[in-house]
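RECORD TYPE: protein structure
NAME: Arylsulfatase
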Amino acid sequence: MRFVFTCVMICTFAFLQFSQADSIRAEEKKPPNVLFIAIDDLRTELGCYGHPHVQSPALDRLAAQGVLFTNHFVQVPTCGASRYALLTGRSPRNSGVTRSNQAFYRGKSALSAEKTAGAQTMPELFRRSGYQTTCIGKISHTADGRVFEYNGSGDGRDEVPHAWDELVTPFGSWKRGWGIFFAYANGRSREDGSGIRDLMQFTVEKDEDLPDGLLAQEAITKLKAFKTGTQPFFLGLGFFKPHLPFVAPRQDWEAISQIEIPDAPHPEKTESSYWHKSGEFYSYNMEFPKTRPLARENRLQTRRGYLACVRYVDRQVGKVLTALEELGLSENTIVVVWGDHGWFLGDSALWAKHAPLERALNSTLIIRAPGVSQPGLKTAALVETIDLYPTLVDLCQPAFRKTEFPLDGVSLKPILNGQKSKVRDFAFSYWNSAVSVRDQSYRLTATLKKGRPASVELYDVSKTPDPVQNLAKEKTELVNQLLEAIPDTQSK
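PREDICTED:
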């Protein structure tokens, strides 16, 4: 009997060992999850980018764990068109979307609502490949993934057809998508009909008293559900701040108001033909005169408002990343933090975006891919937003039909794992009829007419990102070289 008992115990132990090994192998083969965090209007003014006056500890920590891109450039310096390029992986040269915020559902470049055999957008590809896809906040252009106008009119159809298994953006007391996007305290909104349109407000006490705090809370709830699920997940989490209006908890304003921050390095109006009147910014009610440029003390106050919102949204990112770690999901989850474009913050007497210049085109990009990305790597490689789609395809290996749905970017995996220091020689961006090309030191922007440059501006961005001195007439050889790099452009 003792012999039989011993044999049974040995067999049971062996079975458990093999079962555990099978479980480990199954876990190893499980496709990586994706947490894609989009942050509206986030320029590269963060601690991890070398700005110690900015309080961004969560993003700084993520950058130390992953790869920080210092030369990431968006395709278009406005929300909707930039996100269209992100989600479709198509260059504006091929999609025709060079400005429109309604590109997802209007005009010749709108996504088809008809179901196709493959995938048109990034989240749709992952959904068709067995991922649970969830959207919280602003990933496409609308604040919750549904098509409504600012005033609430519209049919509420999915902005990106077939992309998301669930749209679970919490509305709180603001009741609807654009309400939470343009939110003030206590359920009020720029679009609620009351006429409120203050540039800044810092009155609430709790993070969850404002929409971004609710987004983080909902994301943590979903991560807990994913923990017990059987599918890999693709979670799109789109935070609103630091987009206008500048609204955050009182603690963030008080923290930023107590530190010294730098003024805009070149606060006077530029001679660039792409300078604009900053209509989005000046449409808000201000407690000081709307001068152009703003007086120095007013400019600094406004810059503090932006940085207070950065501090607030950084804290929300930190909460979500902490939950990811505590749930044991971080080791198999790729995290991407992406800014949909840069932002003028009084630089060159400009505010907001909407110009094919360095400040508006350069935005935050951080990628942490467990087992692939080199922790703490800071790369100056020229990369574009359209590179993110092929990068996630490369990292996750979903069932992608390249011939049926071509992508215009390149995978950044060789940068992440240190195999390469660059993937391209130039980065291209678009704005209406203008094309902007960036090499490692210069930015050339040309307005084209029938493929020929009607006007050309060249700036040495290795000295300053601001368009201070147009060198186009002094460096004609370089101008012709950069013009020739632009597809379909005749330099003469």
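COMMENT: The two ends are 96 Å apart (CA to CA).
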